[in-house]
Design a protein that fits this description.
Blueprint: E1 3-8, H1 15-27, E2 30-36, H2 47-58, E3 64-69, H3 73-80, E4 84-89, H4 92-109, E5 112-117, H5 127-135, H6 146-156
Parallel strand pairs: 1-2, 1-4, 2-3, 4-5
The protein binds adenosine-5'-diphosphate.
C-alpha cells in the first residue's frame, strides 16, 4: 500500500490545503494528514479542533486519515508506514525552505518529498491571511470550507452582550 503524509499546522484548513489533499488522495492508496503539535506556538484553534474540522472536510475522499504529531516529521512517517511527503508550493518563496527540509528528511530517514504546485486559484492563500481577513469581518467564504468559515466567525467575533 502506498501511503503519503500531508503535514502542516492547518490553523485552520483552507481550500488551498484541501486542493492538495484531494489531489494527493487520487495518487496514493492512503493519505495521512499530519497536524503538527507545536508547544511553543498556540494557534487560534486547538489541535483537536483543527483535526475535527479536517476530518469533516476530508470525509468524502474515503482514503484520507487525520492524525496529530509532535517531534520529527520523519518519525511520524515511519510510525504511519508512509514513505512520501506531499508539500504544496505556492510560490518560489516557499521553495528555499521546503528544499532544505526535503533534503534533510531524505537524509534522516529516506522519506521522499513530492512538491505539488498550487492550484492558481489558491496561490495567495494561507491560514494566517484567512485569519487576518476574518478578524476584521471580511468574507472568507471563497477561501475555506463553510464549517471553517463558521468556526472563524464564532471564534473571532464576540457575541453581543
Ligand atoms: P499555512 O502556510 O497556511 O499556515 P501550513 O503550515 O498548514 O500552512 O501548510 C501545510 C502545507 O500546505 C504546506 O505544504 C503548504 O505549502 C501547503 N499549503 C498551504 N497553503 C496552500 C495553498 N494555498 N495552496 C497550496 N498549498 C498550500
Amino acid at each position: 500500500m502506498r501511503r503519503a503524509v500531508c503535514p502542516g499546522s492547518f490553523d485552520p484548513v483552507t481550500n488551498g490545503h484541501l486542493d492538495i489533499i484531494g489531489r494527493a488522495s487520487r495518487l496514493f492508496d492512503e493519505v495521512i494528514v499530519g497536524v503538527l503539535v507545536n508547544q511553543s506556538k498556540s494557534g487560534l484553534f486547538t489541535v483537536e479542533e483543527r483535526i475535527e474540522m479536517l476530518r469533516e472536510v476530508t470525509a468524502s475522499y474515503g482514503n484520507v486519515r487525520v492524525a496529530s504529531f509532535r517531534g520529527l516529521l520523519v518519525d511520524f512517517c515511519r510510525a504511519q508506514r508512509a514513505t512520501v511527503l506531499i508539500k504544496g508550493l505556492r510560490a518560489v518563496s516557499d521553495f528555499d525552505y521546503e528544499l532544505q527540509m526535503a533534503q534533510m528528511n531524505i537524509g534522516l530517514a529516506g522519506v521522499e518529498t513530492l512538491f505539488m504546485p498550487t492550484n492558481p486559484l489558491y496561490s495567495f492563500l494561507s491560514s494566517s491571511l484567512v485569519k487576518d481577513v476574518a478578524k476584521w469581518g471580511g468574507d472568507v467564504t471563497p477561501h475555506v470550507p463553510d464549517v471553517v468559515r463558521d468556526a472563524l466567525k464564532a471564534r473571532l467575533v464576540p457575541p453581543p452582550p
